[in-house]
C-alpha cells in the first residue's frame, strides 16, 4: 500500500515538475491566500466577520469615554496574536534572505552516486536558497564583514536534501564541540552586548590566537570574501566532506561547490561600511530586484570527488573542515546548474521559517567522519525544536514534495491528521511498513566498517594549521593581499587589549612575516622579528577573486548615469539603450528627481537624486556630458563632486563624456595627475577612467570598436580598477 502511495506521489511530483509550476510551488497553493484580490472582509481568527476593527469595546459616558472591556474577543485576539509574533531568531545566521529556484542536472554523476537528483538529467528539482550573515542579529546590516551562509534546500523526489554551506570553503574549528566557543567569542561581548555584527573586538581575536586551527579561516574572513558585492556574486561551498554512494555500493568522498555565473566580486571596505548605514538591506534588495527584473542569478554546481581508497594520499586530512581540497589536486567537476527565479510571497512563513539540517540527505548521498559534520548533524534538528517546535517539518516551506508517512505523532501544532487505529510498527494490519531495501528510492545506509577505541582525539594531520593559510594568502593578487592587511589592521585597532594585538601579530608571522610586520606597525604593536613557520611560497588556483575564471561579465551591474539640466540626450539614450540590451541596469541620477531637461530632446525623470542614493550603491558612474549648464550644475554641487570622487576612491569604473563631463571629472579627481584624459575625437581608458573627447560623443559612433561604449564595457566587466590602489591613486582623493 505504501509503495503504491509513494509511487503515485512520485508520479504526481514528476508531472508537476514538468508542468507549468514546479511541485513545491504547486504545494504552497493550499496554504496561500491573497489579501489584495477578491472580496474578503476582516474576520477573527475563528472566522467571525467583524464590522469595527478600530475601536475596542468600551463602556462610555455621554462624552464617549470610559474603560475598555476585557470581554472584547476581537481586540484580545488581535493583541494576543501581536504579542506572540516573534519567534527566537536563529542562534547564528539570524539575518538572511532567500529565493526559490530550480536545479538542473547537465551531466549524470551515476559513476559516483545513485542519487536521482544527480543522475537523472530529465529532472528539474525545485529549491530554496537562504543567504545570511553569521554573527549579527535579524536587524543588522547586510554589508558587515562576516562569512555568508549559502543554505540550499533541494525538494527532491526522494525527500529534502539540504546543503547548508557558506561562501567560504573552510571553517574556524575542526570539531563541533568548539562551536559554542567560537560563536560566543565572535558575537557581541557578554557584559555589554557590543559590538553588533562584527569581529573587530577583543574576544574574537583572542579566540583566534588561542586556536591555531582557526588561522586559515580568519585569513578568508579578512579577505574580500567577507564583504561580497552581492549574494549573486558569491561562491557557495558545502565545506564539510560528504560521501556519494553509487548503485554498486561504492563510496567516494565529495565536496560540493556553487560557482556564480555573475562572477565572484566584492565591495571595498570603506564602501561596505558606508552602505551599512545608507542601505542596510543592500544585499537583500539586490537579490530581490534582480529576480523581479528577470535577471535570474545562476550558479554552476560542481563536485570534487576522491575515491575512498585515496583518502590518505594528501598532506592534509580530507575530513578536516579547516582545509580545502586544492583544485589543482582535485578539480571540480561541474555537473549541474541552479537558477533563482522567484521571490518569496511572504518573508516570515517562507524565509524565516525555512529550516535546514545537514543530516537531511537523500539516497546516494551520505556523511563522512568529518567531526564538524557529525556535530552539525545533531545541532540543526535540535535548534529547530526551540525555534519552530517539533512539527517544524510540516510547515509549508519545509514540507517535502514526496509523500511523508510514519508513526511519529503529536507534539505542539500538529497539522497532519493520520487516519487508522495504529501508530506503531509492526502492527497487525501491516500498515505503514518500512520500504524495501531493493527500492532504489529508499535510503540504505552504507555499511562502513568501524573499529577502534573510545577516546577524545584527532588524527595527526588535523594538527597542522598553517600550510593552507599560507597557500591562501600566496594565491591572492597584490590588491587582495593589501585588503587583508588593511582588514587585519582595522580589526585589531578595534581591540583595546594590547595583548590581543601583540599575540595576533605573532600569529600573523606564522603566515607571512612581512604581513605581520606591516600590520604591527599600523596598529602600534611590537613587530615580530621571526616566523616559527616561514611562508612556503606555494600557490594554488581559483582562490583569487580578481583572477577567478569567467568573472568578467556585466549583466545586472548597476550603472549610474549622472544627468543635470542641459545634459546630452543623444548620448544618454544611446548608453541607456545599449546597457539595457546587455542586461545591465543603467539608472539615471540627477540633483533632484523632478524631470531633467536635456540641451535638446525630451526630459528624463531620475530614479534617484544625489542625496537619496550615493555612488556606493552603484557599480559604475558615467558623467553623460552636456552643455555649460550641465557642467556648472554638477561641478558646483558638492554632493555630485563627492559622488564621483568616492566612486573613484572605491576603484569603480568612471566614465566622462565630452568637455562638460571631463570638466566635472577633473573637479572631482583632479589631484590625480596620472589619470590620462582623452582629447578631440579620442576615447581613452586610464586607471579604469574612460573619457571621450568632445568629438567622440555622437550616438552611433559610440558603439564601434574603440568607442566609449566598448571601452567602458570592458572596464565595467572587470568590476574594479584595482591598479588605482596598487599605484596609490586612491589615497589622493
Ligand atoms: Fe551552522 N548552524 N553550525 N554552520 N549554519 C546554524 O541552525 C552549527 C557551520 C550554516 O539559513 C544553526 O537552523 C554547528 C558550518 C548556515 O537557516 C545551528 C556547527 C557551516 C546556517 C548551527 C556549525 C555552517 C547555519 C542556527 C559546527 C558552513 C543558516 C540556526 C559544527 C558549511 C541556515 C539553524 C539558514 C545555522 C549549528 C558550523 C553553515 C545552531 C554546531 C561549518 C548557512 O544549528
Automatic annotation (TrEMBL):
It is an enzyme of class 1 (oxidoreductase). Its cofactor is heme. Residues 43-433 form the Catalase core domain. It catalyses: 2 H2O2 = O2 + 2 H2O. Heme binds at residue 380. Transmembrane segments: none annotated. GO terms for biological process: hydrogen peroxide catabolic process; response to oxidative stress. The keyword Oxidoreductase applies. GO terms for cellular component: cytosol. InterPro entries: Catalase, Catalase_AS, Catalase_clade2, Catalase_clade2_helical, Catalase_core, Catalase_haem_BS, Catalase_immune_responsive, Catalase_large_C. Its EC number is 1.11.1.6. It holds the Pfam family Catalase-rel. The active site is at residues 93, 166. Keywords: Heme, Hydrogen peroxide, Iron, Metal-binding, Oxidoreductase, Peroxidase. GO terms for molecular function: catalase activity; heme binding; metal ion binding. Belongs to the catalase family. Catalyzes the degradation of hydrogen peroxide (H(2)O(2)) generated by peroxisomal oxidases to water and oxygen, thereby protecting cells from the toxic effects of hydrogen peroxide. Occurs in almost all aerobically respiring organisms and serves to protect cells from the toxic effects of hydrogen peroxide. This is Catalase. It comes from Eremomyces bilateralis CBS 781.70.
Amino acid at each position: 500500500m505504501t509503495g503504491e502511495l509513494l509511487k503515485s506521489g512520485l508520479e504526481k511530483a514528476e508531472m508537476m515538475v514538468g508542468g507549468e509550476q514546479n511541485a513545491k510551488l504547486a504545494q504552497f497553493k493550499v496554504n496561500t491566500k491573497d489579501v489584495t484580490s477578491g472580496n474578503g472582509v476582516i474576520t477573527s481568527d475563528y472566522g467571525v466577520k467583524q464590522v469595527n476593527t478600530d475601536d475596542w469595546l468600551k463602556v462610555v459616558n455621554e462624552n464617549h469615554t470610559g474603560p475598555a472591556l476585557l470581554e472584547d474577543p476581537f481586540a484580545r485576539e488581535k493583541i494576543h496574536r501581536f504579542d506572540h509574533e516573534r519567534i527566537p531568531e536563529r542562534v547564528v545566521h539570524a539575518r538572511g534572505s532567500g529565493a526559490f529556484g530550480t536545479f538542473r542536472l547537465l551531466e549524470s554523476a551515476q559513476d559516483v552516486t545513485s542519487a536521482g537528483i544527480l543522475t537523472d538529467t530529465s529532472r528539474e528539482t525545485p529549491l530554496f536558497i537562504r543567504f545570511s550573515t553569521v554573527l549579527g542579529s535579524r536587524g543588522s546590516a547586510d554589508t558587515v564583514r562576516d562569512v555568508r551562509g549559502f543554505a540550499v534546500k533541494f525538494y527532491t523526489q526522494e525527500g529534502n536534501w539540504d546543503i547548508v554551506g557558506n561562501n567560504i570553503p573552510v571553517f574556524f574549528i575542526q570539531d563541533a564541540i568548539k562551536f559554542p566557543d567560537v560563536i560566543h567569542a565572535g558575537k557581541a561581548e557578554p557584559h555589554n552586548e557590543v559590538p553588533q555584527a562584527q569581529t573587530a573586538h577583543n574576544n574574537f581575536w583572542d579566540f583566534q590566537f588561542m586556536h591555531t586551527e582557526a588561522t586559515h579561516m580568519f585569513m578568508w574572513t579578512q579577505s574580500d570574501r567577507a564583504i561580497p558585492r552581492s549574494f549573486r556574486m558569491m561562491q557557495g561551498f558545502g565545506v564539510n566532506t560528504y560521501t556519494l554512494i553509487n548503485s554498486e555500493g561504492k563510496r567516494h568522498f565529495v565536496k560540493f561547490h556553487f560557482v556564480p555565473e555573475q562572477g565572484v566580486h566584492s565591495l571595498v571596505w570603506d564602501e561596505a561600511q558606508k552602505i551599512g548605514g545608507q542601505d542596510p538591506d543592500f544585499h537583500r534588495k539586490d537579490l530581490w530586484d534582480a529576480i523581479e527584473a528577470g535577471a535570474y542569478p545562476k550558479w554552476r554546481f560542481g563536485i570534487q570527488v576522491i575515491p575512498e581508497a585515496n583518502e590518505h594520499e594528501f598532506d592534509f586530512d580530507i575530513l578536516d573542515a579547516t582545509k580545502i581540497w586544492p583544485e589543482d589536486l582535485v578539480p571540480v567537476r561541474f555537473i549541474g546548474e541552479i537558477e533563482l527565479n522567484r521571490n518569496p510571497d511572504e518573508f516570515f512563513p517562507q524565509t524565516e521559517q525555512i529550516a535546514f539540517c545537514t543530516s537531511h540527505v537523500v539516497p546516494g548521498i551520505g556523511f563522512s567522519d568529518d567531526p564538524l559534520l557529525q556535530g552539525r548533524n545533531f545541532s540543526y534538528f535540535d535548534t529547530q525544536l526551540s525555534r519552530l517546535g517539533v512539527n517544524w517539518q510540516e510547515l509549508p516551506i519545509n514540507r517535502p514534495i514526496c509523500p511523508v508517512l510514519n508513526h511519529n505523532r503529536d507534539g505542539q501544532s500538529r497539522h497532519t491528521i493520520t487516519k487508522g487505529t495504529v501508530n506503531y510498527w509492526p502492527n497487525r494490519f501491516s500498515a505503514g511498513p518500512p520500504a524495501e531495501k531493493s527500492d532504489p528510492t529508499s535510503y540504505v545506509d552504507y555499511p562502513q566498517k568501524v573499529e577502534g577505541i573510545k577516546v577524545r582525539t584527532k588524527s595527526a594531520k588535523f594538527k597542522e594549521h598553517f600550510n593552507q593559510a599560507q597557500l591562501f594568502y600566496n594565491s591572492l593578487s597584490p590588491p587582495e593581499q593589501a585588503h587583508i592587511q588593511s582588514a587585519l589592521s582595522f580589526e585589531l585597532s578595534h581591540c583595546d587589549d594590547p595583548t590581543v594585538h601583540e599575540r595576533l601579530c605573532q600569529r600573523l608571522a606564522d603566515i607571512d612575516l612581512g604581513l605581520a610586520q606591516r600590520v604591527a606597525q599600523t596598529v602600534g604593536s611590537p613587530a615580530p622579528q621571526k616566523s616559527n613557520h616561514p611562508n612556503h611560497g606555494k600557490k594554488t588556483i581559483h582562490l583569487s577573486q580578481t583572477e577567478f575564471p569567467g568573472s568578467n561579465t556585466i549583466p545586472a551591474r548597476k550603472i549610474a548615469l549622472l544627468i543635470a539640466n542641459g545634459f546630452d540626450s543623444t548620448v544618454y539614450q544611446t548608453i541607456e539603450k545599449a546597457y539595457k540590451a546587455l542586461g545591465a541596469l543603467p539608472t539615471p541620477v540627477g540633483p533632484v528627481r523632478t524631470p531633467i531637461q536635456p540641451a535638446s530632446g525630451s526630459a528624463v525623470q531620475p530614479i534617484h537624486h544625489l542625496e537619496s542614493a550615493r555612488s556606493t550603491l552603484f557599480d559604475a558612474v558615467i558623467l553623460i556630458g552636456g552643455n555649460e549648464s550641465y557642467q556648472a550644475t554638477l561641478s558646483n554641487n558638492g554632493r555630485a563632486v563627492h559622488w564621483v570622487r568616492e566612486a573613484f576612491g572605491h576603484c569603480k569604473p568612471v566614465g566622462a563624456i565630452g568637455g562638460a563631463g571631463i570638466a566635472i571629472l577633473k573637479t572631482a579627481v583632479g589631484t590625480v595627475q596620472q589619470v590620462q584624459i582623452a582629447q578631440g575625437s579620442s576615447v581613452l581608458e586610464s586607471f579604469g577612467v574612460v573619457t571621450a573627447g568632445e568629438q567622440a560623443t555622437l550616438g552611433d559612433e559610440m558603439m564601434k570598436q574603440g568607442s566609449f561604449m566598448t571601452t567602458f564595457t570592458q572596464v565595467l566587466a572587470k568590476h574594479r580598477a584595482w591598479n588605482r590602489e596598487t599605484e596609490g591613486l586612491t589615497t589622493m582623493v
